[in-house]
Amino acid sequence: MTVAAAPLDSVAEARGDSPAAAWARRLVVPVFTIAAIVAVGYAIGHDVPTWLDAHVKPEIDKAYRWTVLNNDKHWIFTGFFTPIGDAIQWSTDHMLSLLRILRWPGVLALTAVVGYRTGGLRTALTGAIVLSGCGFLGFWDHTMITLALMLVSVVVSLLIGIPLGIWSGLSPQAEKVMRSILDTAQVMPTYVYLLPIIVAFGIKSPAAVIATVIYAVPPAVRLTSLGIRSVAGTNVEVGESFGCTPRQLLLKVRLPLARRPILLGVNQVIMMAFGVVVIAAVVGTGGAGQDVLDGLAKIDVGKAFGPGLALVFAAIAIDRVTTGQRGRDHRRRFGPWTGAAIGLGAVVAIALIAKVIGTDHFPESWKVDVSGWANSVADWVQRNFRKGVPIVGGTASFSDFFVIHILDPVRDLLQDAAWYIVIAVVAVIAWLSAGWRLATVCTLCMIGIASLRVWDLAMETLSQILIITVIAIALAIPIGVWAARSDLVERILRPLLDAAQVLPAFVYLVPVLFLFNIGRVPGVIATIIYALPPAIRLLSLGLREVPWAPREAAISFGATPRQELLKVQIPLALRSVMLAVNQVIIMVLAMLVIGALLGAGGLGLETIYGVRKKEVGRGFAGGIAIVLLAIMLDRITQAWGHRDRARRRPAQ
Question: pTM for the full model?
């Protein structure tokens, strides 16, 4: 069953050509382009020429040395960077002091109050009980350090993101500019902009908070803008007819009606800030994230497992109390200000009682040490699953097979191919995806990577991205189809996907260490697990949103369930499939640097060296290369989804 003819077929019919002739005509320019690139590259040589060098590494190292010598006397530091850093440090110090003044009973009470106001008694109890798990694991104080950084980051992100979102929602021109900026920020892994922030602000809290704000602002802007633009025009017209000024329209009509998207944006900001603050522990902010990093650095599963589990508990608790659906009885019982006053009063009372009885720290007798248990389980798993497993041989055999027969061949193919051949292939793919503009952008991105003198590392990273994307989509499609066609499966998967979505990225590395030693394989597997949830969600949602009419027509013509899926649902949900591919690539890019902690190599390792070894030029070159690679892959996969939308437009 064909839903709509492709635009290319329509053009062919208008000219009297066959689709094959139209495709041949379309391929003329790409073929000549690739031939020209290959000819020029052949004349230059197989390897990247030495003159193609942007000299980024020495120039950045030179700039870094200048900042070290002038950070206490130049006006850009004393008048701009230093005051901002001092303000952030003051805010985080006082936020941590406030949490410590509340003590652990007060923090749990505050969590319960927020949960009760957002979702009722069940949400309140769930949030408080789950958060208390951080104390039972012995990481309460360290989790509070992470929580203080997150709260400051959230406040700053919302102060920036909501006004920008309102501006974007009211102005189409501003929305267009914002979209391009936010698209670029979305594909940039956190570690990429963490490095220049460290150069400007130094290490500790200011760098972590600013990096978190950059990452967390986009959802606030996007969802606020979406909420403002989704307000029905009739509501605005009614307000104008009553003589409302633009300010009154915004405060009395647009913002109240856009409340749900804005609150969803707040939740997304909180969760993204939590994840990135944990990642930013690499700059020495302390907290539970630092404990996980220390455990990973020493390949100590037990040391990493405890704080990792505490972060999981904190993330789940925060997500639950910020996304609860409040019932009508809770809305009617108290007014918003009365309920807030009662809740805060209860929190203060509990904090005072805790101070009087001397409950400053989580009781030691309640703590459970899981590090020994985790190490014992890891040892048992490695003894019993690394070798001697029937048929498959064990995780060691799987790791060797995966490296020898999948990772190495794809990497060698890209690294051994002449650099100009790779650029030519990328240019043709981009041309066929969206035309000469995209081909030009992607070609310039690849040339930029070559000029950074990190070509081989970029090809290793690109090989891992391609492999992970193929495997993740291959796993996500059957699961997504199953969830889309079964309400029971969808209900079972939803809480699992919700939990997976809120976990900080490098927490995924901890369980992988139970099965594998350090190297590329555990990094790849952790990245696949990290990228699966959004892919499954998008595929299931896309298939469920396919209209019933074409499916009913296919069934009436005798289509089997398999034919209905392959001939109707998947073609009509192709945009969601392409969006899933795009999101997988973005998630993979976000995990590149984190996977390097386990030996994944590639550009991620370059960025890690830059952050941890103070080799700023090397790390900056690796970070820019990741950004260029991300832009190229993101634009191509976005174009695939837009092509599907354009293909279906003539039938509408």
Answer: 0.78
